[in-house]
Request: fold
Amino acid sequence: MSEAITIATRPDGVAVLTFDQPGSRANVLTRELWTEFGDALAGLAARTDLKGLVLASAKPGVFIAGADLKLLQSAPGPNDPAVRAFIDLGLRVLEQLEALPFATCAAIDGAALGGGLEVALACDARICGTNPKVQLGLPEVKLGLIPGWGGTQRLPRAIGLSEASEMVVSGHADEAETCVNSGLVARVVASERLVDEASALARGPRPTKRRGPLSAAERESTIAAGTGSAAAREALRVMELGAALPLADAIKIETEAFLRLAGSDESKRLITDFFASRKK
Reply:
């Protein structure tokens, strides 16, 4: 197994896949980590002894912080082939995660932002610990982007279009209790019991995934079409359009929109500003 991922099998038959990217304070979705994650899932899919899977992190206060922004910052322009390959890689791995023959649960005891939340959304369930750094969000619009690994489409299928569009268009991250109220998270438990509780969820009945279109009533949104930045407006357009389609088709629309924004002057400027703000 890679240095960034370890897998342990509990006595109850649930595997715990733990992210712990070496040399980094956070787990970041680089090409290398996506590849390692996909390889790990392929090995788990071939096993017949497992009853479920828990995704966890060994980083204090962080589940997965998001995508490799340096790759996006260095893109020469929109529709860059390297960025497309990066996005396609992550989408394929999340398809592997969803196709596993047993239930999955994300055990979140820290920040699950951007791509990190998108990984959790591809799980059957999500549960949070009591770490004060727990926050869940899709802040991509603050970087001139939209979610690119299915977030604009899986989030509405988890909590409804109205709440999902508010979360994405604002780029705001929510605390665990707020996510319980919206239905994004099953419950909050003491951090020391988090993996045990996640394992219990992973052993339970597998919920039916919402892969089809949302109903007409579910597609109603309270967010005005002209709200926010260009990226926020594009996110809303993609979410509303995708909600009327099967998930696979909706994600294709998301991908093309993401690629038009990634590598733009606006996005690269905002990513540069973001890195600068972290050095202060």
